[in-house]
């Protein structure tokens, strides 16, 4: 999964989609995950980094991660995947 290039992300969690003018605000961990996705880390790498840094077990993180990914997909923030 790759975040679209036209998605602007500020250091304080403000996300702007220049295609449609929509904007979102993320909390600290959401911003961190989005940055890791922009850096093209895998799901396993992101899970390892977040569970290592914060007091959260893998199962809980993965449930929240998949909800977050679903929200990003809903707002079309990912590049279209081609096969």
Q: Can you describe what's shown?
A:
- The protein is α+β, with helices and mostly antiparallel strands.
- It has one domain.
- It is built from three helices and three strands, in the order E-E-E-H-H-H.
- The model has no long low-confidence stretch (mean pLDDT 92).
Give the secondary structure arrangement, pairings included.
Elements: E1 7-9, E2 14-17, E3 23-25, H1 28-38, H2 43-53, H3 58-74
Antiparallel strand pairs: 1-2, 2-3
Tell me the count of domains. Answer: 1
From the spread of the alpha carbons, the general shape counts as globular
The residue fraction in helices comes out at 40-55%
User: Based on the structure, what is the oligomeric state of the protein chains?
Assistant: single chain
Order of helices and strands: EEEHHH
Count of DSSP-assigned helices:
3
Task: Outline the low-pLDDT stretches.
Answer: none
Tell me, rounded to a whole number, the average pLDDT: 92
Any idea what the radius of gyration is? Answer: 13 Å
Strand line-up across the major sheet: 1-2-3
Summing up helix and strand content along with how strands pair, one would put the structural category as alpha+beta
How many strand elements? Answer: 3
**First-last Cα distance:** 13 Å
Major sheet details = 3 strands, antiparallel
Residue share in β-strands:
5-15%
């Amino acid at each position: 999964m790759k975040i679209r290039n036209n998605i602007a992300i500020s250091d304080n969690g403000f996300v702007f989609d220049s295609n449609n003018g929509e904007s979102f605000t993320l909390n600290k961990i959401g911003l961190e995950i989005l940055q890791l996705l922009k850096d093209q880390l895998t799901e396993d790498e992101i899970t390892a980094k977040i569970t290592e840094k914060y007091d959260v077990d893998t199962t809980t993180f993965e449930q929240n991660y998949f909800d977050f990914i679903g929200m990003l997909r809903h707002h079309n923030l990912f590049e279209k995947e081609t096969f």
